[in-house]
Design goal:
alpha+beta; 197 residues; 45% helix
Length: 197
């Protein structure tokens, strides 16, 4: 997920609150991280977009948002559905549209992997049902693409809150301490009240 994010997403988007050296938290070595760094980048530098905001605004009509905390704002399920929801739309400037985010300015950067989908609207009992159909396969099977998107979303989830796992571990330690404190408090209560009863 981290490799796909740095090779694809960082072309336009930035992740200004994430530093490359935090990738060691997910098991990457410093050599693997150095291979992903942009030219002139350092291990402690933040993840900046290759394209500056003014150029991106000229190309897409809007500056691409920073993706550092997108997973916390939108949620992992939304992101997963978003990356799987692109379809071909010749009416749009980018040639792409999205089911979950209509009229999005972002082109489908993962189209070579997924292939081209087409939106079909069917009428079932007076209700419109929108359905995406793969018309041109990509370099990956649908299952492989879904797994790749899941990896990307998992990385974005980590990026949104890198200390989440540390916080969970700390929570178990605090709960253990409180349980031991409860036992000690109960023993102290028994000792204090033994002469009263």
């Amino acid at each position: 997920g981290a490799k796909l994010f740095t090779s694809t997403c960082l072309a336009c988007h930035s992740a200004a609150y994430m530093r490359y050296n935090r990738l060691t938290d997910i098991g990457m070595t410093k050599d693997e991280i150095k291979a992903m760094l942009p030219e002139g980048g350092k291990l402690g530098s933040t993840m900046q977009a290759a394209m500056d905001a003014a150029s991106a605004k000229m190309a897409y009509g809007v500056a691409p948002p920073d993706l550092s905390v997108t997973s916390r704002v939108r949620g992992a399920d939304w992101l997963y559905t978003y990356f799987r929801g692109f379809y071909k739309d010749p009416a749009k400037a980018s040639g792409w549209n999205n089911v979950i985010f209509p009229n999005v300015a972002m082109p489908h950067m993962l189209a070579a992997m997924q292939g081209e989908q087409e939106l079909r609207v069917e009428n079932h009992g007076g209700h419109e049902v929108k359905k995406l159909v793969l018309v041109t396969p990509g370099s990956m099977s649908p299952a492989e693409y879904d797994a790749t998107v899941a990896d990307l979303v998992n990385y974005m989830e980590f990026m949104g809150e890198p200390a989440k796992l540390v916080r969970y571990d700390l929570g178990y330690i605090v709960l253990g301490f409180l349980f031991i404190l409860l036992l000690l408090t109960y023993a102290l209560k028994k000792e204090y009240w033994k002469d009263v009863h």
